[in-house]
Amino acid sequence: MEEYELETCCTIPCLSSFTGTDPPSSRSTTWETISPMLGPLRPDCTVCHEEFQPLTALQESEYPLVVIGIFIERPTPFVSVFFERLLKLQYPKNMLKLLIFNQEAHHEQHVNSFLQEHRNLYRAVELLRPEEAMDGVTSRNLAFDMCRQDQNCDYFFSVDIDVVLKNENALKILIEHNLPIVAPMITRTGRLWSNFWGALSPDGYYARSEDYVDIVQRRRVGVWNVPYVSNVYLLKGGLLRSELTDFELFNSHILDPDMAFCHNIRSKGIFMYVTNLHTFGHILSTENYQTGHLHNDLWQIFENPLDWQERYIHPNYTRIMKDHLIETPCPDVYWFPIFTDEACDHIVEEMENFGRWSGGANTDPRIQGGYENVPTIDIHMNQVNFEKEWHKFLLEYIAPITEKMYPGYYTKAQFDLAFVVRYKPDEQPFLRPHHDASTFTINIALNQVGLDYQGGGCRFLRYNCSVEAPRKGWALMHPGRLTHYHEGLPTTAGVRYIAVSFVDP
To answer: Could you say which of 51, 114, 247, 273 is the most buried, measured as most Cβ atoms within 10 Å of its Cβ?
Structure first.
């Protein structure tokens, strides 16, 4: 959907007198005809729960049967995380049917992995694969028709794969609103984009309206009658078997599928709603998403920074200062959590997939001058086109720690060298004593001693101090030149991986 430069907007008041639980198909009033009749909006939503029907009075076996339609139409980041959240949805899985429409071959591995492990949890699962060659319009029409033909389908929950639905109770909340069509409000992080419009132009396209910003920023909360919803919404199955029997609800020669659907809904006099009574989540940016790597989500630190952080930054990172999680195993050496296990695994797997490990010789054409005094078996970040993302990581997550631990020192996290080192007993088991060519060095353990390898660690000779049991995902930070002469202790079994950065101002 096109993103608009939005200011303020005006929607119909939450659950206004124009609305009702039953589809108002018998009324001649539609959204377009009542929109000009609206007066000033009420400051508070006093009737948001008029049609509310709690599920708490029901046994789980009495819950409505919900068909969830999942639509994958383009390469999208964090698809495996989408399915992890789907599993966490607080609703009895034996009352859920899944229809997965996957048009993107790149995501077959993610879909298959989810279904292989969890398919049997759900009442039924149907999957349409890329080889079906079904476009978005056809897949959505077919999904509705599958609910329409199933007399047990009480609700259809439509979810696009780029929706990050973080509220585990979202489905319950929407059902309890007891409305014909209701969407949870989701936004795009840092922007005024959302999955609803507050008003229409005379020709049925987007128009600015007064209270849009207040609703999107949740300065006003309620259940809002709107002319357009997209990306994620709940629809009563009974509607598809009564007012919405037309198979081609998403078809149009001039409108996008979502606009065509909403136009057809409005023309039937059926009202749509969006709720911001709760926070539900956001929508991912799919711009610039490349599929040429093994773990493409690693490259999403710019486009989807919050999702990248949630997946790859250690959950205790934000507590480092408050809870004094930084340890000092040796003088001026700081040790703190930085990466999740998944981040470590993905980096290692990415490097092994690339596979062009250096030979560990002194002659190295990859570096300025072509000579490495203390060579390692490694792959540089720029060899896998990860140097910009790595610099962003250092700037956002390492630099703040550096400035706290080394008072008076400020860094832009520039680096000449950033690389992943591999230690193996039969390849390069250790590293002789040396100084690093850096102001300070970051050394992140990417796998687990005792599980993945034996031995290893780092010894600072001047202080006769060693860190012999590096923790996976934790970073060692120490000065590079002059003071911290150190060596890599022998790896005696298995394979050890570390990510090293020589950082200068």
So the answer is: 273
Residues 135, 268 within the same domain: yes
Q: How far apart are CA 234 and CA 201, in angstroms?
A: 25
* % residues pLDDT > 70 (the chain): 90
Q: Measured between alpha carbons, how far is 243 from 252 in angstroms, rounded to an integer?
A: 19
Higher-confidence position of 410 and 240: 240
Residues 66 and 188 in one domain: yes
Q: What is the CATH number of the domain that holds 389?
A: 2.60.120.620
Spatial contact of 11 and 199, defined as CB atoms under 8 Å apart: yes
Rounded to two decimals, the pTM is 0.89
pLDDT in tens, 31-65: 444 443 333 333 345 556 777 899 998 999 999 99
Contact 100, 70 (CB under 8 A): yes
- For strand 465-467 and strand 440-445, is the pairing parallel, antiparallel, or unpaired? unpaired
What the block records as the tokens of 32 is 């377009």
Tokens standing for residue 82: 């989408």
pLDDT per residue over 159-211, tens digit each?
A: 999 999 999 999 999 999 999 999 999 999 888 899 999 999 888 888 878 89
Model pLDDT, residue 294: 96
Show Cβ contacts of residue 79 under 8 Å, excluding neighbours closer than 6 positions. Answer: 72, 107, 110, 111, 161
- Do 262 and 374 lie in one domain? The reply is no
**Residue span of the structural domain in which 224 resides:** 55-283
Active site residues: 496
Following DSSP, what letter does each residue of 59-71 receive, concatenated? -GGGSPPEEEEEE
Residues 237 and 125 in one domain: yes
Q: Quick check: is 321 in a domain?
A: yes
User: Which pLDDT does position 391 carry in this prediction?
Assistant: 97
pLDDT in tens, 243-264: 999 999 999 999 999 999 999 9
Residues 472 and 341: beta-carbon distance below 8 Å: yes
Q: The domain that contains 182 carries what CATH number?
A: 3.90.550.10
412 and 349 share one domain: yes
Same-domain check for residues 96 and 218? yes
Q: Percentage helix, strand, coil, to 5, in the chain? A: 25, 25, 50
Listed residue (145, 154, 152) closest to 236, CA to CA: 154
| Residue 245 included in any domain | yes
Quick: pLDDT tens for 136-163. 999 999 999 999 999 999 999 999 999 9
Tell me if 152 is assigned to some domain: yes
Cα–chain center distance at 266: 32
